[in-house]
Amino acid sequence: MVNYTVKNYTVKNYTVYMCALLLYFIISYMVIDYRSCKGKHDLHSVLTKVILYWMVLGIFIGLFELVLFFKSDYISSLPLPSIKQNFWYNDIPLHSILTPNFWSKGWREYGDFCDTRYIKPTNMVHYIELIHAITAFVYIYILYYFFRYNTINTSFIGKLMVSISIIHLLGTIIYFITFYSYLNKKPIKKGLKFWSYLLLNILWLILPTLVLVKGISIVHKNYYKPT
């Protein structure tokens, strides 16, 4: 009788997140830069390229936000980390990296060290993230249109960009206002992780503003286009 043993390979959390980031850049390159290098697409400005890369990232983040919304009960049930425990250096089974539970622990990390509303039962921030996720998936259409037709300079896409960016900006502003109010009521230790995680949210003010500016520019050019 032969016994077969299956090795339970493990990886560090930071390795998985770095691989996810690498995957994001590869997909972005294939959709945006690679085609332009082949001469099939001409990126007219740095702003357009930044916006397209942001759209791809928005889709990735949207999937992550769906995990938060639908696994909120699981996230709130996870134990508090020990003082010596560092989320980024935890060993996790390789086979678990495609499960929602694995990515849920990333939200738990954010909730433990930055905004504790994320580790509580479903509340307003969960709905803000859900709305952001749903609207971000509209970027799939814009990216497809660029990939297929070598442009995003149509009135319809411009209006989509304006609408989505306004929704995202409003959500981020509401998040910061309510977070400031919540922080005054329930202070949290403001260490390196707190400021690092919090400052990441500034991206959701800067990039949607760029999308808004580009969208308004596209709508304006199409409105005044000579017939």
Q: Which sheet architecture does the biggest sheet show?
A: 2 strands, antiparallel
Order of helices and strands: EHHHEHHHHHH
Structural class: mainly alpha
Q: Structurally, how many domains make up the residues? A: 1
Distance between the termini: 82 Å
**Helicity range:** 55-70%
| Strand segment count | 2
Alpha plus pi helix count: 9
Rough outline: globular
Strand percentage lies at under 5%
Written account of the structure:
By secondary structure, the chain is mainly α. The protein has one domain (10-223). The protein has 9 helices and 2 strands. The chain is globular, with a radius of gyration of 20 Å. It starts with 9 loop residues before the first strand and ends with a helix.
Quick rundown:
This protein has one domain (10-223).
Characteristics:
2 strands, 68% helix
Describe how the helices and strands are arranged.
Blueprint: E1 10-12, H1 13-37, H2 46-70, H3 72-77, E2 91-93, H4 100-113, H5 124-136, H6 139-149, H7 155-185, H8 192-200, H9 203-223
Antiparallel strand pairs: 1-2
Helix pairs in contact: 1-2, 2-5, 2-9, 5-7, 7-9
